[in-house]
């Protein structure tokens, strides 16, 4: 990865955020994924967990292993403000 490569921030690690991050995993871009949870939840099967047909770990996966690539970083926090003038994103954790 080049030092001056373009930086991309993905807010949210749902299906769309994970898809984009995986597509950018082999790119020259520096990618940061920000999400308020440190896991990805497959909600369509949540009712099966509620009735005991599935274990909860069958529908929830930690995000860091899903985003394992040298150019991708994960930031656990909620976005509070996007400052487009300064080109910065502020979260509740820094």
Automatic annotation (TrEMBL):
<protein>
    <submittedName>
        <fullName>NADH dehydrogenase-like protein</fullName>
        <ecNumber>1.6.99.-</ecNumber>
    </submittedName>
</protein>
<comment type="similarity">
    <text>Belongs to the NADH dehydrogenase family.</text>
</comment>
<dbReference type="GO" id="GO:0003955">
    <property type="term" value="F:NAD(P)H dehydrogenase (quinone) activity"/>
</dbReference>
<keyword id="KW-0560">Oxidoreductase</keyword>
<keyword id="KW-0285">Flavoprotein</keyword>
<keyword id="KW-0274">FAD</keyword>
<dbReference type="InterPro" id="IPR036188">
    <property type="entry name" value="FAD/NAD-bd_sf"/>
</dbReference>
<dbReference type="GO" id="GO:0019646">
    <property type="term" value="P:aerobic electron transport chain"/>
</dbReference>
<dbReference type="InterPro" id="IPR023753">
    <property type="entry name" value="FAD/NAD-binding_dom"/>
</dbReference>
<dbReference type="Pfam" id="PF07992">
    <property type="entry name" value="Pyr_redox_2"/>
</dbReference>
<feature type="domain" description="FAD/NAD(P)-binding">
    <location>
        <begin position="7"/>
        <end position="90"/>
    </location>
</feature>
<dbReference type="InterPro" id="IPR051169">
    <property type="entry name" value="NADH-Q_oxidoreductase"/>
</dbReference>
């Amino acid at each position: 990865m080049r030092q001056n490569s373009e930086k991309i921030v993905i807010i949210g690690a749902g299906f769309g955020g994970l898809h984009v991050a995986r597509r950018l995993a082999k790119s020259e871009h520096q990618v940061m994924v920000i999400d308020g949870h440190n896991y990805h939840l497959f909600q369509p099967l949540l009712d099966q967990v509620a009735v005991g047909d599935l274990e909860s770990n069958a529908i929830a996966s930690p995000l860091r292993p899903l985003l394992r690539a040298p150019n991708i970083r994960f930031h656990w926090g909620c976005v509070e403000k996007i400052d487009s003038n300064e080109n910065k994103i502020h979260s509740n954790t820094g």
